[in-house]
Amino acid sequence: MQVGKPILYSYFRSSCSWRVRIALALKNIDYETVAINLTKDGGQQFSEEFQALNPMKQVPALKIDGITIGQSLAIIEYLEETRPTPRLLPRDPKKRAQVRMVSDLIASGIQPLQNLSVLKQVGQENQLTWAQQAITSGFNALEQILQSTAGRYCVGDEVSMADLCLAPQVANADRFKVDLTPYPTISHINKSLLALEAFHVSHPCRQPDTPPELRA
Amino acid sequence: MQVGKPILYSYFRSSCSWRVRIALALKNIDYETVAINLTKDGGQQFSEEFQALNPMKQVPALKIDGITIGQSLAIIEYLEETRPTPRLLPRDPKKRAQVRMVSDLIASGIQPLQNLSVLKQVGQENQLTWAQQAITSGFNALEQILQSTAGRYCVGDEVSMADLCLAPQVANADRFKVDLTPYPTISHINKSLLALEAFHVSHPCRQPDTPPELRA
Question: Where does the GST C-terminal domain start and stop, copy by copy (chains A, B) (predicted)?
């Protein structure tokens, strides 16, 4: 049984790592970061040591309570079940379904199509178009869904797991120069989220492994 | 408030639809199927009527209890919370985390990369190689994880949400001619699953919209 602080294997720029960093910040869970640089040394996620920890060779992975969990949403659901305050899933099962639908839309429907390993396969010259297409196609759907679920945040007026997926995905959209004008609801929620302390401290530009030139 | 039977918008061959069909069968939930043919008429998921229902233009979607839920895992989690018997998530939070990790590995890490819309983008001549690469890369990780989590099924000896993802993904692997020899744990679990009634009745070759030549 592991004792001591949870360890988050994270990369500052990984949007999936950011989701988990927000959850840890919101729930006020003290943790250590082990930086896994996805581009240095041909990708530190491919090291034997890291593969033994997460065979998917992806970040994030969280060592906590004697186990190691991969997959950001599985990690967040575990944190929610074992450290329920503040809650990241509403009480009402129908609202919970909306939160999970929005989360999965981003985590299965958008992010995997524009992550580093896929873009490598697509080839340098097609990367930007490919990523933009994945994001706009997902955001077209997301904007429509949020128009009926959102209050101040993605589902109603409380921050939920869906918001932990939204802000990092909007950051990816920015990175790939996606025009956000057609997405007023997404943009508005994102702005509200970025004003929150937990989103601020967990931001890619403020991590232990953020290179000096990208710090803010 | 909707009354009457739940309606599942499904396509016989969609692996994500199959996940939900298994859940409905295991939980003995009576439902109606509305077939959405993903290839006919340029794709019935693109109709205005269906887009209003699920802006992601994907199956499955489930109309139930007065709401419509998209995203297969969000649907399954909702069914689990509102119709908890038999359970598809273990009681122990650590085991639940393992179930969700395996489910997300497939639902975010494999399936989205080999689904119909991505393969269209990749182009006819590259489709098979692309799909095989996505599946073998995911299965390499999955095999390693299952070696430490599996009993008779993906996590221990009870069927869980992870198994609802596994069998449909193995069917996709078959379809894309992936050699399963390197994956004895995956293959063994899949065989046990296919022997279960709920996996049998929900199988792509036994759906209302299965074409006669693919029926078994």
Answer: 92-212
SS3 A67: strand
pLDDT of residue A39: 87
A162: pLDDT strictly greater than 80? yes
Return the pLDDT at A3.
65
Q: Could you tell me which chain B residue has the CA closest to the CA of A58? A: B109
Domain ranges of chain A: 7-86, 93-199
Q: Which CATH architecture has domain A7-86?
A: 3-Layer(aba) Sandwich (3.40)
**3-state percent helix, strand, coil for chain B, nearest multiple of 5:** 60, 10, 35
Please state the rounded mean pLDDT for residues A156-170. 98
How far, in Å, CA of A36 to CA of A19, rounded? 16
Nearest to residue B104, comparing CAs of A82, A112, A34, A165? A112
Q: For chain A, what percent of residues have pLDDT higher than 90?
A: 91
Structure confidence by residue, pLDDT tens digits, B15-73: 999 999 999 999 999 999 999 999 888 899 999 999 998 999 999 999 999 999 999 99
Tokens of A176: 């790939």
**B interface test, pick of A59, A96, A100, A105 with most B CB neighbours within 10 Å:** A100
Say whether the ipTM exceeds 0.85: yes
Residues of B in contact with A96 (CB under 8 A): 77-78, 81
Among the CATH numbers 1.20.1600.10, 1.10.3720.10, 1.20.1050.10, 3.40.50.150, which is that of B93-199? 1.20.1050.10
Tell which of A83, A108, A161 to mutate to test the B interface (max B CBs under 10 Å).
A108
Mean pLDDT along residues B77-105? 98
| Of residues B61, B9, B75, the one with CA closest to residue A97 | B75
- The whole-angstrom distance between A216's CA and the closest CA on chain B is 31
Contact call for B105 and A75, based on CB within 8 A: no
Partner-chain contact A97 B145, CB within 8 Å = no
Chain A residue numbers with beta carbons less than 8 Å from the beta carbon of B142 are: 55
Residue of B74, B100, B138 lying closest to A74 (CB–CB):
B100
- What distance in Å separates residue B212's CA from the closest CA in chain A? 31
C-alpha distances out from residue A118 to A17, B26, B36, Å: 17, 35, 28
